[in-house]
């Protein structure tokens, strides 16, 4: 036995152990490599399966241009087999289109050099399949290859095309909506989720007086002032938070005028809020006017005598006026809960304000049909001696209007009217005058006297003849047939023009009637005929007598004038012989004889003046006057100088007071001087000795005035009333001689011939004052 040293044995053992450990590790590594290989094979199979079933097919393009790709990709490209080079993907009848192949080569080269990824849509020839190529360079820099993923985008392209069509349609709709919003006459806007303005239309810009929509949005100009509680932003916030549209009415200033706007805020799915504003100013005014009209109408209905009740579409009592409540004894407390129509009828029945009916439920049901009646219904209710006219008018909105009119008094008036008609007929028949009533162009009513005056037959009158027929019928009964038209004219004036006119007609038999046409309140005309035959006879007699008196006055005037002329000759002789005696032609006279001759001369002068006055009075009537400028002051002074000897003889103070304003007038110098002389002569004659007579002259721009006054005994009222009457006696002068008073009538006649005015004022013991005013 070989002995091995211990150290060698240890070394051998160590080697064996090392070999065993190495073998074990190799076994373990082999098993692990086998497991990893199996796992890699399975993973490659899965990947291959995934690649085979993937909607995208990969192609590897090597740096030298060679390609590697699965068979399925060749089918997509319409190739029998895959070419080896990228440039061979485009064939004559199959493969990619040459343009797509060239574009793909360019993108691959760019990816190889710059590592730029790309996406390119391509299509195989003869195939409807749309492919999308996505390419990128491999991350392994050593290989510098490019991976091309071919995706089947056929369905995607169809969806894209559909989406493009839909997008075009939506874009057109959006454009139309935008144009509509822009053209809208009302302000419209859009707010974002933060309620800031993002868009406004032109109407909004005009309302806020902005430059353009961008400037308004940038400045955030609000249409309505105030953004606090209840403002436009508050409504928009509520709409955004609740998802419910909000409406509010707010005032705004637009175009310098205060307008009422109704704002609408509508939440959108995007979180924003769209809004628009409607101008309701006119609507508010109309609503206010309608409300005021309703109030005024109800106030007016309260003042009506008729009862009025209005029922709403739900048949509840909406309104009733005071006469209705009073008529049916209804209190306001009972009306507080707006009773229904049936309850109102029941209440009326309880207060005995409805007519007695046998079947009340059926009667009430018929009245309930008033709400749906096509037209108004009218009835007469007789309740406890009261007659009510009931009018039921269905309202368009479904309600009912009831009007209750008390006709009791009207029925009484109709009864009284019938009685009055009978009284009137009896009265007309008993009148002594002929009476006819015309209406609508016909004779409507007449009395017995009317028929007797015209001698009409009853059949003719019962036919109510027209005015023209009546005129023709009366022609033959008149003295002048043409006067028949006057009767027709009178009737027409009274009936149509409402004028009262009258005339006189003469009958052929000598009768005379005064006919008068009077308009009546009812539009008719009343014709009355009064027999004035006796009156006309008396008038004719008076006219004949007046003509005889006028002829007698002319004879008297002619006689007085002739006698005055005849008296001039003997007076001239008497005066001449008296002057010769007084002058001593027949010898020297004694003192007594001289006094006698002076008295004769004085009497002759007075008698001559009287004859001259009589001639003036009779000849001046109607005699023309001279129209020349007359110095009234000079004429008055001349007249005063002529009367001065008479005043001096009676020791009367004759005073002339000239204010210097009398001036001149247009007239007859002789007559005006005679006016002053007659007034002064009358004053001197009626004034006692040592009295005073004043002649005053003044005037203005319109008239000249002459005033003669004295402090004589004055005149009584009767004497003043007869002062200007011809040949009247006005008392006795202090000398005991009667004054015939021709001077005053002559003065009045001359003054009035000049268009002037004369006035005499006198009282007993106060003297006399005469005023004459002459126009310029």
State the main characteristics.
776 residues; alpha+beta; Beta-Lactamase; 22 helices; phosphoprotein; transferase
Give a verbal description of the structure.
Keywords: Coiled coil, Kinase, Membrane, Phosphoprotein, Transferase, Transmembrane, Transmembrane helix, Two-component regulatory system. This protein has 22 helices and 27 strands. 21% of the residues are buried. The radius of gyration is 69 Å and the shape is elongated. Strand 1 (56-61) and strand 2 (67-68) form a beta hairpin. The protein folds into seven domains: 1-53; 58-152, 2-Layer Sandwich (Beta-Lactamase); 184-279, PAS domain (Beta-Lactamase, 2-Layer Sandwich), CATH 3.30.450; 286-381 and 398-406, Beta-Lactamase; 413-531, 2-Layer Sandwich (Beta-Lactamase); 532-619, Helix Hairpins; 624-775, Histidine kinase-like ATPase, C-terminal domain (Heat Shock Protein 90), CATH 3.30.565.10. With 776 residues, it is an alpha+beta fold. It is 46% helix and 22% strand. A five-stranded antiparallel sheet has the order 2-1-5-4-3, with helices on both faces. It has a five-stranded antiparallel sheet with strand order 7-6-10-9-8. A five-stranded antiparallel sheet has the order 12-11-15-14-13. The longest helix has 51 residues, at 533-583.
